[in-house]
Amino acid sequence: MTHQRSSGNANQTFFNEGDKNHQSLSPLHSTWVTAFLKEEDTLSILHQIYLSLFINNYTPTVLIDLQGQIIQVNQSALEFLQYSSADLILSPYSNLLRINKKSPDDMFIKKINESNPFKVECQVLNGIGELIPVLLSATPFVIGEELIGTFGVIHDMSEGYRLNEITASKDPLTSLPNRLSFLKELTKWHTNGESFDVLRVDIENLKDINSVYGYEIGDSILKNVSERLITFLGKQTFISRFGDASFVCMATDELKISKNQLLKRISKPIKVDKEEIFFRVLIGKVYFPQDGLEVKDIIKSLDLSIQLNKCRKRFSSQKEIGEQELIQRVKLENEITMALKKNQFELFLQPKVLWKEKKIKGAEALLRWTHPRYGAVSPVDFIPIAEETGLIIEMGEWVFEEVCKVLQKWKNTNIPDKTISVNISIQQLYRKGFLDTLVTLVNQYGINPNLIELEMTESTFSYDTKKAQRILVDCQQAGFHVSMDDFGTDYSSLNLLAEFPLDTLKIDKRFIQSYNRNERSQVILKSIISLSKGLHLQSVVEGVETLLEFEAAKKLDCDIIQGYYFSKPLPIQKFEEYANQFDYSIYINT
């Protein structure tokens, strides 16, 4: 029969402070200590056992008393859990462990008091807020015949039973120190108290590259980036592989690195079978002690730095913009996800006018969002976030399917054929199976692909020219038309015209809107339209808002005019009414 002790001095240390053979140990905070420290022989034996099984154990271990209170943790546990001893000692075990539903909390306490070894699968909440799946092996802690509590040995199960992971120090792919090694080194630097800089480098689109080109290409990029970091930052910098697509670098000397310097060195494309593979890099930077006094604060600041860099798309410290902006951005991202699920988006159409034939040729499909609480949300606010997070892919497919539904409806109700242009993002175009998705949808709705025009900006074309060229040739062969949007905004415009299969040039609206006050705009517009005729491409002047701009577009002899002068983007039904009642003469006599 066992009994629970209730007397003793909670502040008394477990071993004699005068013992010079071992390091000073933290107080063992429990009421039963004094009762067992009466005889020196017993103390010496317990001392050796304790050192062997607990303090010097390379496996994370915690000591929990019969009430479920954590009374001691070893150094391996502190490193694995990313806590200080003060964070854990005297706290209830439930602050750290999340017990499986099959083993509720009262059962856990009951098992500790049964004096039998047991194992339980659960989760631990570490110092930076991550839940890690673990296997807890509990061994009774008995002194004499008295049950004191249990030793809980923690095995990391985040990638299966990797009981030896705690001793691993290298990343097998890059041979750099791994995340665990970084955390140990960070703890060491932090303990030394010297100021230092931490730099994090993330490969933003590695997941997409793996999906499109395969994991071998992704691995090649990771190896190349690691080698470039070592070459550029030097041996004095501690460089580690921090995550699947990220590296962390630490230096005691200030890392005075500009965006251009770093990006130029590490983000050059890699060549695979004579093809260049491009990747995007995000950089975050924090300073100790300015950006966090504790190890967990430094990690949080580093994560925040990367997140804020995603928001701003620039090299900066997280201190340059507030956390509130990040919070708003994350909330908006969640709202976008919810809007897709709850069908809050709506398709609008803006008319495109064949002015010589005095009729509506078709429309451009545009996305609009009316939030149930906040009302209309501008595309300027939600489209960039959708592109950054990858939600633009789901959003783009939704738009394309809605366009197919509209064209099917027009076909079934004998409305004269009209084309609809659909904006295609860079993420969509280079996504594996892009064209297969489009073909499946037009076949599903019985639509002629000639009625759909795929509209892309110059930057989308130029991201990976050879791959884009192949995809667009296939799109044309499948029956789709291809349009270059915002033509004239990129230095490579003329080169793209020579290389890409196109049907339409859509001229950036800034040219027409400055036409009547800028002589150079007049020359450029005239040249572009003349060029399009020579290449047998349709020319679209967009952004026409006034009578003067309308007259200028006609004078330039473009093919199609689009803009608020004729109509703003309209809901489907309103567009159908507008197209049915369209009277070109109204606009001539304005």
Strand content: 15-25%
Mean pLDDT: 80
Instruction: Report helical residue fraction.
Output: 40-55%
Uncertain segments of ≥5 residues (pLDDT<50)?
Answer: 1-40, 160-167, 313-321
CATH fold label of the largest domain: TIM Barrel
**How is the largest sheet built, in terms of strand order?**
14-15-17-18-19-20-21-22
Strand-pairing-aware structural class: alpha/beta
- Overall, the morphology is elongated
- Helix tally? 22
Give a short account of the largest sheet: 8 strands, mixed, barrel
Total strands: the figure is: 23
Give the key terms.
Beta-Lactamase; alpha/beta; TIM Barrel; eight-stranded mixed barrel; Alpha-Beta Plaits; 590 residues; 3 domains
Describe the structure.
This protein has 590 residues and is an alpha/beta fold. It folds into 3 domains: 34-156, PAS domain (Beta-Lactamase, 2-Layer Sandwich), CATH 3.30.450; 168-324, Alpha-Beta Plaits (2-Layer Sandwich), CATH 3.30.70.270; 342-588, TIM Barrel (Alpha-Beta Barrel). It is built from 22 helices and 23 strands. The chain has an 8-stranded mixed β-barrel with strand order 14-15-17-18-19-20-21-22, surrounded by 4 helices. Strand 15 (359-371) and strand 16 form a beta hairpin. The protein is elongated, with a radius of gyration of 33 Å. It starts with 39 loop residues before the first helix and ends with a helix.
